[in-house]
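Extended Data, panel c. Modelled sequence:
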Amino acid sequence: MPPRKSTETKTLDTKGAKIGEPVPKAIIDTNTASVGIPRQAESDLHEDLSALRKQIDALQQRVTTAARLAKENADDAMRQTQAAVKRHPVSTLVVVAVVCGAFALIVAGRRAEPPRRYRYRSALDELRDLYDSVRDRV
């Protein structure tokens, strides 16, 4: 179905958009055989800036609130930990020793393990030998 022809005449701006304006899609005017963008309504930069400032203020308020809550939660966790250590000093020492021992075992285990490239070297050598023997047969 062919597009309907517009009976209204639009003046097209062929210079392009100004800095800060949204770039609309180009329009092809078949009546005048020209391509351009329709003239855009003037926008008030002061309104746009005030809206952006309000958004920035709201974001700053949210970040401040989140930081305050995180600090309060960290303070509560620190107080609870101090209270648990004061109530159960021997248990705390045992837990710390277990955690340190587990960490030491993990570090020692990683050092004792051969690197991955050496682990598969024998299988790779066997494949190369098999390939060489098959190549010699052919």
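DSSP finds four helices and three strands in the chain. This feature is highlighted in the accompanying rendering.
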